[in-house]
UniProtKB/TrEMBL annotation:
<dbReference type="Pfam" id="PF13458">
    <property type="entry name" value="Peripla_BP_6"/>
</dbReference>
<protein>
    <recommendedName>
        <fullName>Leucine-binding protein domain-containing protein</fullName>
    </recommendedName>
</protein>
<feature type="domain" description="Leucine-binding protein">
    <location>
        <begin position="5"/>
        <end position="339"/>
    </location>
</feature>
<comment type="similarity">
    <text>Belongs to the leucine-binding protein family.</text>
</comment>
<keyword id="KW-0732">Signal</keyword>
<dbReference type="InterPro" id="IPR028082">
    <property type="entry name" value="Peripla_BP_I"/>
</dbReference>
<dbReference type="InterPro" id="IPR028081">
    <property type="entry name" value="Leu-bd"/>
</dbReference>
Length: 352
């Protein structure tokens, strides 16, 4: 038997999402180090095989297929956008476990895919309701990148807003890598939006937030973005973060025992100069924690055994007590407000 458990870690190295990469890698390395300090998984030492997830989906999937077929990897995980997930799922289906960490649009049921990320019904939509209650927002506009997650999430937002009696005043989707958001910001103004749902990834979100704040509208029109995390706050600068909110299952500022202990272990290992600790980086730790919990319960890495082991699986992670429902993890979700370069958690909006 191979004494090493090899796991492909698919994370972005460049492009719009590249800003998330260092945090993702550090959190994944922490999960592996902690597991290996306790005899690994199923008696095997865990090892990460890095794969650049910022390339075209077909290219990433082809590399994963080669690794699976050659027996070089036993599982796949990481943070990468939904088109990459869909391509990878086609080549891992039923063959090796694939634990997907990011927030996503929902509806993934490919055999052997397990998901730890937040979905719109438990993240964005309750956050919109909370902000409507707190700030009286009744004219939302959605601005996102043009791929499946923003469009699927935007559709969920549109249906929800219509059901609440306040239909969206607009939706605008732009290519990944967009730098000029003049037209998007003009749409916010001309459509008289009172709130903006921002579904822009990484560097695109940074560019939008800077340009939006430069108009002065940031003090009057709140923005809600599930993709915003501490790297983006730092890149945007404190003057661009006024009126900016996020929703996630984890924030470094989360005042729970599990969260604070995780942060202490993270900084103990990597030092105070470590990549920013945030929801997107932590999602890579979360995905590996789920893989470990599934394998330990199943005493196997076979997809069928792991699928059975997922039924009503409960364990404690940095996000608190979490529960598996089918192939999807259920967790507490919070809304937080950006204050300078950090977040302040304002409320819990969904319960595990």
């Amino acid at each position: 038997m191979n004494l090493t458990l090899n796991i492909a870690l698919v994370i972005p190295r460049s492009g719009s999402a590249g800003i998330y990469g260092p945090s993702c890698e550090a959190c994944a390395e922490l999960a592996v180090a902690e597991a290996n300090a306790h005899y690994g998984v199923l008696g095997r030492e865990m090892r990460l095989i890095p794969v650049d997830g910022s390339r075209p989906p077909s290219v990433v999937a082809a590399e994963i297929a080669r690794l699976v077929e050659s027996g070089a990897i036993d599982a796949v995980t990481g943070w990468h956008i939904s088109p990459v997930r869909q391509a990878i799922a086609q080549v891992t289906a039923g063959r090796v476990p694939y634990v997907y960490g990011p927030l996503y649009e929902g509806g993934e049921h490919t055999a052997g895919v397990f998901l730890t990320g937040e979905t719109p019904s438990r993240q964005l939509l309750p956050a919109m309701d909370w902000m409507t209650s707190e700030y009286g927002i009744d004219r939302w506009i959605v601005i996102g990148n043009d791929y499946i997650f923003p469009r699927g999430t935007g559709l969920a937002a549109a249906r929800h807003a219509r059901a609440q009696g306040s239909p969206l005043v607009g939706q605008l989707y732009v290519p990944l890598g967009t730098e000029d958001f003049t037209e998007a910001i003009r749409q916010v103004e001309t459509r008289e939006a009172t709130g903006v749902v921002v579904l822009l990834v990484g560097g695109d979100g940074v560019a939008f937030n800077r340009q939006f704040a430069a108009t002065g509208m940031d003090t009057a029109i709140p923005r809600l973005s599930p993709h915003v995390e501490e790297n983006m706050l730092m890149a945007s600068g404190s003057r661009a973060n006024t009126g900016l909110f996020s929703a996630a299952g984890y924030f470094e500022a989360l005042n729970t025992t599990a969260s604070m202990e995780f942060a202490a272990r993270y900084y103990s290992r990597f030092g105070q100069g470590a990549p920013a600790l945030n929801s997107i980086g932590e999602s890579c730790y979360e995905a590996l924690a789920l893989l470990i919990a599934l394998a330990s319960r199943a005493r196997s890495l076979s997809v069928d055994a792991l699928t059975l082991a997922a039924e009503d699986l409960r364990y404690v992670s940095p996000r608190g007590e979490v529960t598996m429902r089918g192939n999807q993890m259920s967790q507490d979700v919070y809304v937080a407000e950006a204050v300078d370069l950090d977040f302040q958690v304002r409320a819990r909006i969904s319960a595990a």
